Give the backbone structure.
Amino acid sequence: MTIINFDSRSSKWIKQGRGQGTGKDYQPWLTVRDLPSSGRSHRVWGFQTQRTHHLLSDLELKAFFLFDWNPVVTDLREQYPLALDDTLEIAKKSCIRHPEFRGQVQVMTTDFLVDTNRAELPKFAIQVKTSSDLFNPRVIEKLEIERQYWKKHKVPWYLLTEKQIPKSVTENISWLYPSQLMLEIEDLLEMAPLYMNFFHKNPAVKISQAAMMLDQAYSLENGESLQKI
């Protein structure tokens, strides 16, 4: 068996249970906190799964609404990790350079793994790309690894671009953004006991210092606790 040298971040995520679980218990491999703050990422409540979904682009958001509205969908797992042993083997056999960063191989992900209540199509995988991405040879190489991965696992795999998303959905996306406000309220209610307990134990700590301590303790973005406090 190939010995794989995970980077420290991937090892930490595996221990956290990322990429595991189903329904409301699923944890995506990548979250919006793992990306630069300037990225077009979204955190949206899923009515099918009753959990927060982490979407890494505007196009992923539009695709998500297509699936979340669909009554045949029973589960929707975003940023789903692919088994590294398999993708490394596929890359080697296809003479494709496997994704890596600073000498460490990276776990590849599929944007959505969708479960349905249809016997003829119980599960399928979706990768979301803009049509312009498909002119990039490196993007095509990585898509080929992903395509072969799902073929090996006998799961239908589809590539979705903005051209396959109905115009009516695109025009009505703005109507759905109030759901993000509901999510922010939910987050505040969940974090309130944590903040109250912290200040009870540390009454002399300044708010700015407390916010920095909370950010570090819970791996939050710098300034996130201060914003919510």
The radius of gyration is 20 Å. Residues 208 and 226 are 7 Å apart (CA to CA).
